[in-house]
Structures are given as C-alpha cells and as structure tokens.
Amino acid sequence: MGAFMPNLPSSMRKPPPQEKAAVTLEEFLDIVPEMNVTSRVLSVLWVLRNEAFDMRPLGYYDEEHFVEEAPQQLIRAFQEQLACISKAIERRNESLTLPYTYLYPPNIENSTTI
C-alpha cells in the first residue's frame, strides 16, 4: 500500500487543496514529490522492511555469553516461556482468517538492529 506513492507520499511540494474539488493532473503532479525523491524513499523503505538474513529470534543466541549455571537456567526458562507463548499464538491463529504475527516470538529480532 505504501509503495503506491499517491497513497503515502513522502512529501508534498505544495500545500494540499483547501477545498474538496476536482484537481487536474497538472495540479496533482505539482503537489506530489518528484519521481527521483519517491524512488529514493521507496529504496530506503525496501531496505528497512526486509528481514535480516542473519535474524536471530528473541531468546536465542549464536554464542554462549554466560557459562555459569544460573544465567543458563534463566535463559532456558525464558526460552520455555517464549515457546508457550508461541504455542498459544499458534492455537489462536488457527481460528483467525488473518493470523496474528507481530509479537509472535519467532518473528521478533533478538536485538534492535537495522
């Protein structure tokens, strides 16, 4: 939806019309951003929306940061809680037309990276 510039213009070169009236194509093109600006914005949005190829889900680590038993137990307990939450969301999604995926633990990045 946002990739179609008239739905979500990144900027406007003139103020929007004050009254609801027919707008000519020329007036419309004078208001919306130029093609190169829209192209750059869409390129940035494309990069930001793509999942990272090295995405690590919340609660899972490539390396062992803690070697002591106490932190490892906490990490395992956290991973078990995440698994329970995931199963609850999966069960709830079975009855939904459009599944809920936003706070589904496997879809949450372990750290905030762009």
TrEMBL record:
Superkingdom assignment: Eukaryota
Domain Lipoxygenase: 1-114
Residues that span the membrane, as ranges: none
PROSITE patterns according to UniProt: LIPOXYGENASE_3
InterPro entries named in the record: LipOase, LipOase_C, LipOase_C_sf
Transferase keyword on record: no
Biological processes, Gene Ontology terms: lipid oxidation
Gene Ontology molecular-function annotations: metal ion binding; oxidoreductase activity, acting on single donors with incorporation of molecular oxygen, incorporation of two atoms of oxygen
Keywords: Dioxygenase, Metal-binding, Oxidoreductase
Full protein name: Hydroperoxide isomerase ALOXE3-like isoform X1
Gene name of this polypeptide: LOC103065462
